């Protein structure tokens, strides 16, 4: 079931998302957080850092699982999702390094690393899974056509995703990795609660596909129509086609 909240600005979207995240942390100090990369969650991560600094909210008992990681770039690459998460969040909170899980995409056998990640995340239940949404409706790197029963796997990135992400790779699509290790749709759906944030006009079609179109792997986010507890926080531009 979707609860949709529409805000005027990116800043307000981030603050609203923080409230949802904080409620989970307040209830359970050893919460399992599912985290996402991309531009959209950065404002929420800034709110979490500020709250940690000012109010002492602790992450020392928290466990985290990220959604995905590029295949074929080293973990310490400036654009790896491992680096992103440290730079945008983990370096500023007190979550122990051994509580942090980011899929490993730099190994010899990414399929085996994906299977190992799925086995690890299955030992827990994610209390809240943060998601962004791709302009093609993907969640994590589950591109159009990915089956709803998919678990963590190696995915081929869609050309539109490569084009969207080339802004991080000197605007050069040939530098963007073409594959990723990603949680599957079924992995994501096991989370107790989902928090999806989307801003900007280029997300409006994907948001429509998730909320209003018939459930279909053409827009993998539409799988969330079957989840019991999804909070969707949008700005007006991303909500333009569902209002
Ligand atoms: C990131 C992820 C992706 C992004 C999506 C939106 O871990 O799994 O699905 O959430 O591509 O990215 P942004 O927020 O950069 O528009």
Describe the structure.
The longest helix is centred in the N-terminal third of the chain and has 18 residues, at 10-27. The strands form two sheets. A seven-stranded parallel beta sheet has the order 1-10-9-6-2-3-5, covered by helices on one side. The mean pLDDT is 97. It has 243 residues and is of the alpha/beta class. The radius of gyration is 17 Å and the shape is globular. It has one domain (2-155, 182-235): Rossmann fold (3-Layer(aba) Sandwich), CATH 3.40.50. The chain has helices at residues 10-27, 42-55, 81-88, 110-121, 159-165, 185-189, 204-211; strands at residues 2-7, 32-35, 63-66, 68-70, 100-101, 128-131, 153-156, 179-182, 193-198, 230-235. Helices cover 30% and strands 18% of the residues. The two termini are 17 Å apart. Strand 2 (32-35), helix 2 and strand 3 (63-66) form a beta-alpha-beta unit. Fructose -6-phosphate binds next to loops.
